[in-house]
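Quick review question:
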């Protein structure tokens, strides 16, 4: 039996990394059905432009700070970066919950956005402790954490929001504090001293695109940008869409998002991991983008029926579940150990840019539709952008990365 002092069989930290990202995503998911409705209400009276800024500023700051945090984690280690950034997330949630004016809501989102690059560091932790062959399947853990967080968070936010509009933000802040304590006390440092030393000498942006990897990485980044932009149009408008088109309150919307997240867990935690025993990452990403685009096209014309809405949402969930982890895995496997944080930081930045651009597009296009056709133009634009994502994915050449094998993921 291996002990903690036996270097041959160290205990994998994948389970704790999964829990860390899960708690982070539950906190993030809590505010999804709450924030747009909360900010638009009588207390703040935010306009569509103010809403787009409020939703988008978080991701804009992630765009700036994800590569910075990723590069920093390559130099000083993953654990200190995760610990401090999660603490910042908690502070941001508490400021948002305490807000009595729009500028305070914005300040809370700014603090949270600066701290929000920690997902890239979490992905780098997984890359540190897995082989290249198993990396796409292990990145499915992040997809599963997103799915569970997207399942539990919105439902919890909807229930808490019925009690008090500010309560979801305080609960999310409390969860972030718990998360920070778990990381500080239990997460081992996953970056080896050798990789840290190499990063200090060679961690340049040019190194990321060297050794013939530039075409692959650019194609993956473009695919990520387009797919996240299209998907974020939906997520930013969904609560208001359900309220104005179906008459649902935030609790009902939260349960619908619970259903979307539940399907995502089934797909990424089970079906996708089995499918990725074969080297078909690109094909799965293409299928996912196609299903996502079709579902988004039909969303605004959904009849006033819960069953039909759930059917369309199922397509959205399945499509997104196929796209996200496959792109993450391809990006990770295209880099060396000492550039993992930088590469995944760039991927997170592409996602952050998409989550900034998406709401800006979506909210500005609302002016073309009445409440009866709320967000129709926005969702059509989303579908068109997702078709562009599909085209970008077809340009990815997975042969530049090591093909996955059916080896099992290290046990947690």
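Suggested answer, residue by residue:
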């Amino acid at each position: 039996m291996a002990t903690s002092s036996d270097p041959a069989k160290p205990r994998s930290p994948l389970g704790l990394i999964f829990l860390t990202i899960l708690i982070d995503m539950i906190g993030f998911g809590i505010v999804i059905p709450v924030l747009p409705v909360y900010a638009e209400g009588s207390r703040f009276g935010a306009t569509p432009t103010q809403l787009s800024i409020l939703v988008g500023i978080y991701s804009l700051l992630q765009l700036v700070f994800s590569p910075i945090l990723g590069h920093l984690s390559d130099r000083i280690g993953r654990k200190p970066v995760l610990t401090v950034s999660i603490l910042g997330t908690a502070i941001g949630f508490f400021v948002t919950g305490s807000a009595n004016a729009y500028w305070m809501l914005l300040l809370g989102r700014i603090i949270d956005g600066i701290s929000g690059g920690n997902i890239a560091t979490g992905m780098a932790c997984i890359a540190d402790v897995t082989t290249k062959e198993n990396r796409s399947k292990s990145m499915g853990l992040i997809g599963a954490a997103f799915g569970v967080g997207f399942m539990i968070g919105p439902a919890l936010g909807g229930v808490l929001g019925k009690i008090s509009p500010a309560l979801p933000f305080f609960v999310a802040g409390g969860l972030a504090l718990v998360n920070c304590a778990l990381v500080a006390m239990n997460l081992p440092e996953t970056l080896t001293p050798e990789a840290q030393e190499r990063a200090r000498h060679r961690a340049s942006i040019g190194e990321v695109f060297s050794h013939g990897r530039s075409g692959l990485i650019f194609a993956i980044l473009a695919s990520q940008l387009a797919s996240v932009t299209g998907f974020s149009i939906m997520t930013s408008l969904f609560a208001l869409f359900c309220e104005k088109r179906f008459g649902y309150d935030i609790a009902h919307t939260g349960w619908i998002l619970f259903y979307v997240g539940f399907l995502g867990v089934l797909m990424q935690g089970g079906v996708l991991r089995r499918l990725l025993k074969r080297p078909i990452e690109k094909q799965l990403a293409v299928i996912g983008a196609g299903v996502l685009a079709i579902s988004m096209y039909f969303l605004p014309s959904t009849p006033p029926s819960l069953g039909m809405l759930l059917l369309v949402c199922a397509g959205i969930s399945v499509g997104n579940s196929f796209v996200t982890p496959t792109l993450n895995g391809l990006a990770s496997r295209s880099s060396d150990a000492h550039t993992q944080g930088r590469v995944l930081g760039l991927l997170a930045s592409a996602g952050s840019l998409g989550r900034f651009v998406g709401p800006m597009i979506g909210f500005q296009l609302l002016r073309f539709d009445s409440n009866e056709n709320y967000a129709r133009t926005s969702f059509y634009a989303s579908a068109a952008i997702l078709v562009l994502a599909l085209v970008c994915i077809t340009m990815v050449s997975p042969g530049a990365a090591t093909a996955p094998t059916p080896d099992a993921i290290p046990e947690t």
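Why it works: Confidence is low (pLDDT under 50) at residues 1-9, 400-412. Residues 14-187+209-400 form a domain with the Growth Hormone; Chain: A; fold (CATH 1.20.1250.20).
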